[in-house]
Amino acid sequence: MIEYRGPRAFLGVFYAGLLVWTLISAAFLVPRAASGAWPLGQMLMIGFVVAYTWYFSLGISYLLRVGKDGTVQVQSFRRSMRFQAGDIDQIEGPRFAILPFGFLRMRVAGGKIYLFCRFGSHELGAVLKQLRRANIKMSVKFLPS
Question: What is the pTM of this model?
Answer without folding.
Answer: 0.89
